[in-house]
Amino acid sequence: MVNIAGREAYSYPLLIGQLLASVKQYRTTEIVSAGRRFSYVALRERIHRLASLLRSLGVQAGDTVAVMDWDSHRYLECYFAIPMMGAVLQTVNVRLSRDVIGFTLRQAGAKLLLCHAEFEPVVEDLRDALPDLEHVVRLIDGDEPGTYEALLAAALPEFPFSDFDENAIATTFHTTGTTGDPKQVFFTHRQIVLHTLAASATLANQPDGQGLRRSDVYMPMTPLFHVHAWGLPYIATMLGLKQVYPGRYDPGTLLALKKQEGVTFSHGVPTLLRMVLDAASESLAPWTMLVGGSALSPDLAREAARKGIVTVCGYGMSETGPILSIGRSGPEDTIDSKCRAGFPIPLVHMRTEPDGRGELQVRAPWVTQGYAAQDASDALWEDGWLHTQDIAEIDPDGGVRIVDRIKDVIKTGGEWVSSIEIEALLMSHPAVSEAAVIAIPSKKWGERPKAFVVGSPGTAAPPPQELRAFLAQFATGGHISPYAVPDEIVFRDSLPRTSVGKIDKRLLRQNAESEPNAVLSTRIATQGDIHGP
Amino acid sequence: MVNIAGREAYSYPLLIGQLLASVKQYRTTEIVSAGRRFSYVALRERIHRLASLLRSLGVQAGDTVAVMDWDSHRYLECYFAIPMMGAVLQTVNVRLSRDVIGFTLRQAGAKLLLCHAEFEPVVEDLRDALPDLEHVVRLIDGDEPGTYEALLAAALPEFPFSDFDENAIATTFHTTGTTGDPKQVFFTHRQIVLHTLAASATLANQPDGQGLRRSDVYMPMTPLFHVHAWGLPYIATMLGLKQVYPGRYDPGTLLALKKQEGVTFSHGVPTLLRMVLDAASESLAPWTMLVGGSALSPDLAREAARKGIVTVCGYGMSETGPILSIGRSGPEDTIDSKCRAGFPIPLVHMRTEPDGRGELQVRAPWVTQGYAAQDASDALWEDGWLHTQDIAEIDPDGGVRIVDRIKDVIKTGGEWVSSIEIEALLMSHPAVSEAAVIAIPSKKWGERPKAFVVGSPGTAAPPPQELRAFLAQFATGGHISPYAVPDEIVFRDSLPRTSVGKIDKRLLRQNAESEPNAVLSTRIATQGDIHGP
């Protein structure tokens, strides 16, 4: 805590509260959420009231306060008020199973939970297993007594926020990786402020229609429980944009808000983009969507463009806070180059090992310094570089192309095949809307690719042999290795998803392993014609 | 120095070198200067070569390296290479007198000086009085043996830059205030990086035509020796803009470069803007000019607009690193509101004492922590706020209007009159192009305003009585106090300027004091008709 009296210079810590220093000027700009709309002046006051409420419930600096809510103004207020008190904001992934939610709340030691009414049954079940949890504040959209809005209205409108060390932990959450248990990551005030500044400078300086401008209207489509919704709520607030919070993601609601509130900027994983495109019957322009989390396929980008959505690719992960790179494109860029992971944003160092193409390793002032578990941290950091576990190519101009997750790469016949590449080619077939390719163990080849595909709506599924022949053309043309053509291509009604909307390849692999005989027999039957000399 | 080995997280210091982390992507963007043009890839290499050269001349971390040059690529390279070595860059105001230059070099303890051939006679004169100075490197536009370009070409193209404490001093220079001796200020790496990020986010996010976009071409018109040219060379480099360095400011050269290189963004004091407007015979659009240092009068802004220049006001001072606020305007804004000092940029706290209208006091993570002289620092900082010595009004929307410098305010007849306000009204008269109003001591009224004006080119100077009558209308209309109408209005061919182009009111006051009788007699003769009840 800095408490300077007399004639001494103020030592300015980089605290989340400082992002609000200049927002007074946005007194007519609105936050829209859950049927409410209020200005930035009101936002500031609501943040103070929330802190007053939490203090009255015993929250002190260093305590962990957890939130279970859909995207709302309440969540935005928690993004500020909780860390500004010196407490730690735990954003809970509400899509996880009850037991895993319990694990994350317990590991973080949450003392108070702000919980949407919808999740109360889950928390009720868990309560006995959460010895640290002292209070639960009920979140609903209305203002019934005893719930969030009523409590806020009764709380003091000025909270005596004070300064503290910028390296204090501001937020914590669990990565929802496709391997192993959720891992707890931490971000400090300094990290979040620096991420906000560097990403703001980049997004604001994008070519027209590919970034954020003061006149843009922002609506998240990456949940606020997931890596601070990629940091965009902090960015949008610092830049003074109109913000729209859509609650639980429902295509109809998202499209209605887009239209009613004039939303022009969102961000999300490809699955969300697909969901919105499938539900839209008319052009959605102007709408810029920052896409990340998984590779954006050129076909999905094209389909988005046809419906008026400009897609901009970004790259990052839970451990990196998250934004590391953002794409931009000129008229000469192909759709393929637009689907790269973009260019490193200011202050981000990237390298691959080996140089040119290899594991992507990064440094940035906002990446997590480790996990709660030391073992996992050791694997994350080596030689002072954060190891992303992604294989990437870095172009001479610094542009980054993610080849694959290391664990998703298929090593077959002595070659390394990118699952992402095969998936993109499969999705370029008119009958395929989604694709996932995994490795299946093979005695002869080490591994072999196996594809799961979802057909395009209203299109008859072609025989798998036709899709294999389609891919084989690219092998003949030298675009992919002949080894990259999967032996098996299986149609499915849908693909399993993780809690944040990525395709769950771990589950696909597990299921494939549980039926080894059937898989092997099919593979053996189809292998020869592809792998011949 | 951080030297992490093994499995430990990288502790990322905010160093000026980190601003170059992502510039590899700008490999086709050019730096244009002194007849040369080269890419950002070459810029990076030249920075390494310069550091190698300086190391070979004995420069170590902690040493001070001074620069005396006009605006050039060399200066830009010094902005990076010197602080990146852990050395301190001293930017020397070459417009000061020989003795004052000697004072600043001596106080900073410069060990090596990079000196343009034009200033060698000055340095030759001073050499005996500079015991710390060991080397002088000659700067010329050509590449003769033994001069900058030749030495760079012979130096090693890779320098082993390493990390160090972000609170290390990066730059130092002397404020050229209109009172007292030059005062030495310091800026750390952390301060410069944070200024770069926050100002970049703001400028990039301005309304169209009022800020910086990736496609903009940047040319400074605030000298690089003055407060890091307001930080713009760092900003332009981090954002990857084409940059044009014009050497010594000559209107013909500036306009020729503007046209040839497609310059679209510059910054400077009102005097520079006037100089360019006077020299221009055709429209200069598109050209955005960030104007600061002194108040921009509505008439100069209008004249600029007629010639195609969009003026954007900014506010800051040498002590503040400098940018604190930047203006923006919509179609509904009047020219008057456009001439405000703008809105605080992210992370900047502003208050006035008393609240609403009073001395402007600020906090930002990049303002200087003090002067070399402790006494002066004590006056700068009080209660943890930096005292700007400017009187300001802060609007409910956070917009800032600078009323006057505290020492320029005129206390007359119990009222406080803003010299800036009277000057703007005088300049709105068609026969007046420039104006300066100072306070003259008065036994009866405490002080009285006195005006010095420069006539418009090609317009006959009206009798002073006509200008007084012109101002009196505004007093009658209630726009200004009757006390604000100067007793004396004197035509001059030009007004004295400080070394950075501001009107030198201190000199005007000194001269007025040296002729007290004449002034008093005129004042007494003209006072009655204005100050009647």
Automatic annotation (TrEMBL), chains A, B:
Record bears the keyword ATP-binding: no
GO molecular-function terms, A-Z: ligase activity, forming carbon-sulfur bonds
Residue ranges of every copy of the AMP-dependent synthetase/ligase domain listed in the record: 27-371
Alphabetical list of Pfam families matching this protein: AMP-binding, AMP-binding_C
Broad class of enzyme this protein falls into: ligase
EC number: 6.2.1.44
Keywords: Ligase, Plasmid
Record family assignment: Belongs to the ATP-dependent AMP-binding enzyme family.
Protein name as it appears in the record: 3-methylmercaptopropionyl-CoA ligase
Protein source organism: Sphingomonas panacis
Lineage: Bacteria, Pseudomonadati, Pseudomonadota, Alphaproteobacteria, Sphingomonadales
